[in-house]
Request: fold
Amino acid sequence: MTAPQPIRSIVIVGGGTAGWMAAAALSRLTRTGVRVTLVESDAIATVGVGEATIPPIRSFNGLLGIDENEFLRRTQGTIKLGIDFQGWDHEGDRYFHPFGEFGFDIEGVKFHQFWRKLHETGAASGIGDYNLCAMAMKLGRYQPPSTDPGSVSSRMAYAYQFDASLYAAFLREFAEARGVVRQEGKVVHVPVRGEDGHIEAVVLEGDRRIEGELFIDCTGFRALLIDQTLGAGWESWAHWLQCDRAVAVPCAAPDETITPYTRCTARTAGWQWRIPLQHRIGNGYVYCSGDISDDAAREMLLANLDGKPLRDPFMLKFEAGRRKLAWHRNCVALGLSSGFLEPLESTSIHLIQTGVSKLMALLPDTGFSPVERDEYNRLTDTQMEQVRDFIILHYHANRRTDGDLWRRVREMEIPETLRRKLDLFRNRGRFFRYEDELFAESSWIAVMLGQGVYPAGWDPLADAIDTAQIQKTLDRIRTIFAQTASTMPRHEDWLARHAPAGRFA
Ligand SMILES: Cc1cc2nc3c(=O)[nH]c(=O)nc-3n(C[C@H](O)[C@H](O)[C@H](O)COP(=O)(O)OP(=O)(O)OC[C@H]3O[C@@H](n4cnc5c(N)ncnc54)[C@H](O)[C@@H]3O)c2cc1C
Reply:
């Protein structure tokens, strides 16, 4: 038996967002002589959706050295400051989940504790008035955050909305220029070594064989390597996240306004997304097939578009859940092959990003020690569960009166991890973030309050500061945030100036 050697050959199967994100990140290894090959089949379409992101995407692009304005131009991209949730607590209501933080903590006590205390007497307005991103969302404005932490506009935080196929094409160009080799063809056979069950190679139509040491499964819902070949198994979360289908269609954007946010509107049997890009708007209706027929869902979507549909609506079927082992033997699953959580908080692309980062940090050698694999799987499991809980919160804490779906999810048993968070927040607005949890306290606060989870009291430490002083501070924050947001350029003007594409090109 030979001593373990550094990995010399990596094969990525699949050329959707996951495949090309992995290829772009791993292209760095080609400088050390590692062969990185990506296999994709033009005959098998990518999932064709996945256009809204969350702020950490900026560090992914930044690490690759991608110029932001060029990236926005090439992907018809827009800025996303958060999500506009409509009708989620009850019919007709609306709240923002903005990316930036709320107000400023005072003497180590969280801002929302002071807000809660004043809100009791009507001396504080809605929490969104104390968040710069939310104020900019309301006005449709955007300006990049200042790098000076003393400046008010340093409180801006943002992500992107982009055309998923253009992003994959952009990353493909990036990766190929840095030595990744693309092989076109359909994988028809995946031979496995007898002695340890590792994948030896992938065999393409026409009997082309591509050997490798480490395989990355980016084949989407098919999970061709990790599950069809290695049988890594599936854990379903469909009892908590009951939507199992989506119908999607892009439509024309009827006017110049481009909202700097994604909109998620609750509907009787699910919810509808609206993602504005420079050249069009992406739309989809995520629904529970037990509560509405496919035809009715399609009609519902078409009846709620801002402009003319640009193609026939297409349907996707899925189940919420995760791969029991995201890394199994010499194969790591990224993207849809590793699990699925519905796109309510735009987290899937982020989970690809963290998957690639973890893999880079735990890159194995040919010995494939279980130490690295187990750590990867532990971290992946925790991250998936944390995101899952956050998404369940949106459903569970609702007071909608239409549709059986909303009653079921309100009455269902929720994971113990989420139950603890809800109880703590309901009591005195307390929140603790565990193990590098993706969503920060401000996100949980926005969604808890937005969904009508209102703390019964506040932290007693908020009483240690004079109420009149708190009042003055809150009023000042609201005024300064409103003024700062109103002097920002309109989002579409900023795009036209810095990253013109679509109608601005
Ligand atoms: C309805 C919906 C909405 C979504 N919205 C968002 C969102 O707003 N934000 C977000 O972050 N995420 C979103 N996602 C998730 C996001 O779309 C995916 O995480 C992302 O596109 C990655 O997909 P993928 O690359 O894993 O799979 P795919 O895009 O399905 O790509 C699979 C690739 O594998 C290749 N392939 C498959 N079989 C073979 C074979 N035998 N041989 C060769 N090649 C093969 C295909 O050709 C293709 O290139 C959404 C998902 C759904 C279903």
The first strand starts at residue 9 and ends at 13. The chain has a mean pLDDT of 97. The pocket of flavin-adenine dinucleotide is lined by residues 13-19, 39-41, 44, 46-47, 49-53, 164, 186-187, 218-220, 222, 224, 246, 248, 284, 316, 318, 335-337, 343, 346, 348-349 (CB under 6 Å).
